[in-house]
Specification:
By secondary structure, this protein is of the alpha+beta class. The chain is about 55% helix and about 15% strand. The chain has helices at about 15-20, 30-40, 45-60, 85-110; strands at about 25, 65-70, 75-80. α1 (about 15-20) crosses α2. The protein starts with 12 loop residues before the first helix and ends with a helix. About 20% of the residues are buried.
Length: about 110
């Protein structure tokens, strides 16, 4: 039996990025790997989806980016969560908790 991958629901990518960065600053490729590890390999975020999302949330002030060198000596932009991003992460997590509760109630309804 293969390990099925969960499809990423629309609107969740921002929360996943914020959650990954809540553990510490990372460059884009590192964020992709952290999300994969945190989800036990069930979620894969493509670079084509990640970088526009990072740009968007950086404009919102939820993350800040700074250029530096990655572990292999290549130039990379490192992102870190801002205070506004920490607040937004809490909002996003509370929203997801409510959604999970509602979906669970609907599934259990008879």
């Amino acid at each position: 039996m293969t390990n099925p991958k969960a499809d990423l629901l629309q609107g969740t990518l921002d929360m996943l990025i914020l959650k990954a960065l809540s553990l510490g600053p990372l460059h884009g490729y590192g964020i992709i790997h952290r999300i994969r590890r945190m989800s036990d390999e069930m979620l894969t975020v493509e670079q084509g989806a990640l970088y526009p999302a990072l740009y968007r949330i950086e404009l919102k002030g939820w993350v800040s980016g700074k250029w530096g060198e990655n572990e292999t000596g290549r130039k990379a932009k490192f992102y870190k969560l801002t205070r506004a991003g920490q607040k937004q992460l809490r909002i996003e997590e509370e929203s997801w908790d409510r959604l999970v509760l509602v979906v669970t109630k609907m599934r259990e309804a008879t």
